[in-house]
Amino acid sequence: MSVVEEGIGEAKLLEILTELPDFLSSGARLADLNGQDSEKTDAQLAAAYAYAYGLYQQKRYGEAGFVFAFLTLQDHLDIRYWNGLGGAQQMQKQYKEAIDSYGMVVMYDLGNPLPCYRIAECLMALGEYDDAELVLKSVVEFANTDSEAHTSIKRRVASVSVLLDSARRKAQKMPDSDKPSATK
């Protein structure tokens, strides 16, 4: 029986909320609080992920983002959920939010250069070219193997660096009123 079904009182709820940080820091998930066995919960999360991924593939980014956000609340340690949320936010031009989501992926998967690359794309879209350049440099540092994935990301960085230089020159020539801003 779940906490909601039990009709717990305010004191019990306060106790649960007080213990929640320790619960989560031990590697547990909010999904584990529902009282179901882990296999059933995992199957439900897998189904929700497949649904969100399908929505994303159909370019239904708002709906996909909603499901991915739900998934990050259920299992904050699964980087697929954060990647999906970041991608949906980026496609909806919610760049600051996407940066936060991709930042979670970076925290949980330090050796993966792709989320840093996505952060750089978002920074460029916000017109934050200097920050984007710094992040792109870190992407190259993260992509430190000869694997096909790392070689591919290095090529992408080289291409984007050319675009970044062009965008920076163009922004310097623009009147301030026409420049991209972080509030857009």
Written account of the structure:
By secondary structure, the chain is mainly α. The chain has 2 domains: 1-106, Tetratricopeptide repeat domain (Serine Threonine Protein Phosphatase 5, Tetratricopeptide repeat), CATH 1.25.40; 110-184, Methane Monooxygenase Hydroxylase, Chain G, domain 1, CATH 1.20.58. It has helices at residues 3-6, 10-25, 38-57, 61-74, 79-91, 95-108, 114-125, 129-142, 148-173. Helix 3 packs antiparallel against helix 4. The radius of gyration is 20 Å and the shape is elongated. The chain starts with a helix and ends in an 11-residue tail after the last helix. Mean pLDDT is 84; it is low at 1-5.
What is the CATH homologous superfamily assignment of the largest domain? Tetratricopeptide repeat domain
CATH architecture of the largest domain: Alpha Horseshoe
Tell me the major beta sheet.
Answer: none
What's the order of the H and E elements? HHHHHHHHH
Strand content: under 5%
CATH topology of the largest domain: Serine Threonine Protein Phosphatase 5, Tetratricopeptide repeat
Task: Give the structural class.
Answer: mainly alpha
Total strand segments: 0
Shape verdict: elongated
User: What does the radius of gyration come to?
Assistant: 20 Å
- Oligomeric nature of the chains: single chain
The CATH class of the largest domain is Mainly Alpha
Rounded mean pLDDT score = 84
Proportion of helical residues:
over 70%
How many domain modules?
2
Spatial gap, N to C terminus: 45 Å
Low-confidence stretches: 1-5
Helix count equals: 9
Question: What is the compact description of this entry?
Answer:
The protein has 184 residues and is mostly helical.
